[in-house]
## 1
Amino acid sequence: QSTLKSKTKDLYPDWTPGEPVPYAALCTTFSKIEMITKRLEILAHCSLFLRQVLRLTPKDLLPTILLMINKLAADYAGIELGIGESLIMKAVSESTGRTLAQVKADQNEIGDLGMVAAKSRSKQPTMFKPKPLTVRGVHAGLMTIATTEGSGAQGRKVDNIKKLLSATDAHSMDKGVDINKDKGGASEAKYIVRTLEGKLRLGLAEKTVLVALAQAMMFHEMSEKDNKIPSTADLAKAESTLKSVYSELPSYEVIIPAMLEHGILNLPENCRLQPGVPLKPMLAKPTKSITEVLDRFEGKDFTCEYKYDGERAQIHFVAHSASEEYATAAPASGKSDKGVSNIFSRNSEDLSKKYPDILGKLPTWVKEGTKSFVLDCETVAWDMVEKKVLPFQQLMTRKRKDVKVEDVKVKVCVFAFDILYLNGEALVNKPFRERREHLHKSFIPVEGEFAFAKYGDTNELEEIQTLLEESVKSSCEGLMVKMLDGPESSYEPSRRSQNWLKVKKDYLSGVGDSLDLVVIGAYYGKGKRTSWYGAFLLACYNPTTQNYETVCNIGTGFSEAVLEHLHTQLSDIVIDRAKPFYTHSSGNKDQPDVWFEPRFVWEVKTADLTLSPRYKAAADEVAGGGKGVSLRFPRFIKERDDKKPEQASTSRMIAEMYQKQESVGKNKGPSVDDDF
Ligand code: ATP
């Protein structure tokens, strides 16, 4: 007991109870985490620090957590950092009295702008000691930078970055420190800059922070208050409670105050799904054949729904008469005389400005007595003349922001397939059959505007085959097969669940599921394509190391128009050299002509997978002697602008696909690199 307490006390001595958490204390923890790779040790450091916050300054728990996960607010608030390199370099140079050329030269040599800032700051003679930065102060400063808009915004952003950098502790990185060995130590400037870049690169996954928070809270409640040490079972309970609450209500802004007030184990009674806060959507597992579906669901009742090819939309609505149900944290975008509403994307991004036409009509689809709801839907482009679904490409031509109803050219129809909340009650734990009944009872379909997803409840192979063919004829991607009864049919937020299976028409020809990859480099074109990029270097994401691991070059599947558009789009994010968190072969001939910031995600199909020394995807997981998994004959399908780079296919997924393929023994041919 005494050891536990003293350990937390020694962490950072200059921290007075009740006073704001010193930013230097957080940076000390960051630097410890950065020096280690074992997940459990990282978790321990993180949780120890959070215990100290809980004991000394619980008021700062929220900004501390947000800085740890490198976000300024919940996703739906749409507040993003990710400030470009050139603005940051300008601010570093101006705030440390070095020339831009010196800063750029350092950046070329070190490759990590955070460390460049640390070095610049430690070289600077300081006349007076700046007032120490606090966690809440840094959070507020970053918020100001992120939300600066309008004319002269860039200049004001630079000024505000300078303000923060000038307040960092100049000597927190000792002179003469070996940058490569100790990664720049606990320098405040380093972490401020990395936060601004949108990448802390500590190897601290968001999930780890969530677990650390649960453990710290349990420790705090039991050891600090009741003088007991929690058992492993107590910690596991805290962890599963917080995880499940967070998946229904992914907002620390709502959860943390409730947890501090009611205690972690009482969270489920106090923090439930709430209209206004988007849940992380449930996802499906791919299957290769209808027989695989029948094997998986043998003896159970299931339903086969059309898999519409549009954009996922989670629609939240609360009638004025039930307004207390709406989360106060939410920015209600759609307002009508009936109530308030929002539409969120698969990423929890607020899509309300893209779909004012949907929000406008929404109240007319609602039956009398339906006061509040959260619907899971797909918005699909709709042909008003032929009265049918249009292909996905049509939907992509719609503007994303500030759409005016009168300007809408591509009409959309909303296909609702699930209801997660109705009239004050969360339905996620109810069986799907019951949820579907609620859905059908509470809304009125309107042709070309609002419909229920088509489905057939059958276990017969031939009938499923027919449904699949019909769905494809109706411009759908295939079927979503879902369990109907029992606890297995509950809605599992944020899970790629075994209880939702997708059967796409393409699987049946043996091509397999597509991958979503990040474009990080390009090669100039040859022949007709010389003025654009002719091929690109793609990478998957490794959430554990937070690195992007290369997986293939791609030059197939692009029309001339697409290549031209991509050239314009990507030219804006060219960088001088590979980011230190890109993992790629170091061979000279393997290097692309240009590198990009990791920003765009593309959907890509492949014939199969092979091992290659040129690429590094999943190299640590497949035991290929340093070779990575790579795609053979990759083909570009479409841009995935609903996915962020961190949501790209992971190295783990690619390793699994490769292992599955190997175990099936499909890939008997010689291992070859893709060629274009
Ligand atoms: P991935 O995340 O694997 O890249 P994806 O974004 O296409 O793929 P999938 O898991 O393949 O998602 O399929 C689920 C998606 O299908 C949902 O996100 C939703 O947008 C869409 N969809 C269309 N019709 C349905 C339906 N009836 N039920 C559930 N989802 C549907």
## 2
Amino acid sequence: MNEHNEQRRILIAGGAGFLGAHLCRRMLNEGHRVICLDNYCTGSPDKVADLAGRDGFTLIRHDIVEPLPPGLDPTHIYNLACPASPVHYQRDPIQTLRSCVVGGYHLLELARRSQARILQASTSEVYGNPKTHPQHESYHGHVNPVGLRSCYDEGKRCAETLFADYSRAHGVQVKIARIFNTYGPGMSVGDGRVISNLITQALAGRPLTIYGDGNQTRSFCYVDDMIEGLVRLMDSVDTFMGPVNLGNTSEIAVIEVAQRILELTGREEEFEFVPLPPDDPALRCPDTTLAKSHLDWFPAVPLDEGLRHTIAYFSELVGHEQALARA
Ligand code: NAD
Ligand code: UDP
């Protein structure tokens, strides 16, 4: 429960994904009722298996592109329903775009009817390949509208517009988080994003795949910090919609992350350089001044510590899968 001791009915769309499962667990542990809605395109009921059967937890298989099931009456909605890894969101780009826009519309209509607060998980990708650095929320981005990443980048941009218009036109309590690269325990082995790829490769004794020369930068935020930021944003004052950047400000080149992972896993250096995918942003680092001033939020977990937790998680997962394969 929160400080007002109220039990919330929280709908988490995309709740069986990486961030969603952490959020479901946290909300349930705080005493709220949680409805997890997911079509399992990148998530899985396994991610929330520990919550199944717990009082107050409901899991519904549903695609938010379709009209929502009847009877939902949430007080709060988190919209995390969209594949986040480039390999997954590019596999069915039209579905990705529809998830962002049509799915967002269905959730906003529900928020309007139920007078629920709604938080949209947007992304640093709305900045595209940025021309300013670090990226402040006032920067409007540099995005290719017709490229391979556009279904995600433009889908999330259009969703931000829709959310802002629902706030203005219908007075819906909207919150928009621009999430920067987040990693941690709970990611899938086949997720395809850089941290999970490099760790699983290091643990399997394979060369680490570096796209391009590895000098492109990202800023990696540990999952617990991100969940804290999302919760604070949901609970922020009525007048604050954002968009607000949530992410870590320590920027690092991809090749350096790979070197850290090699060190932490005790592996010798072995890289496989492959061509950089089109429109892969060269730089990415959030300006988090707004999150500090409005949410009193800043990430607390340093990269090495977060990587250690993530390596331990993947070691157990990979070991478990190998044992199953041998059985
Ligand atoms: P994820 O792929 O692990 O989780 C997304 C979840 O949404 C999955 O469970 C998937 O099955 C579900 N889903 C997708 N389309 C759906 C649909 N149409 N209907 C119902 N469920 C659907 O990704 P994640 O890392 O947990 O990301 C969660 C959200 O945060 C996404 O919206 C993503 O765009 C955003 N985000 C994440 C990051 C990050 O680094 N993790 C960065 C920026 C933005
Ligand atoms: N990348 C890499 N090796 C991999 C996966 C990704 O070098 O095995 C690079 C990718 O080209 C990008 C960065 O790592 O520059 C982050 O990629 P990710 O897919 O995690 O997220 P993005 O920020 O691109 O959405």
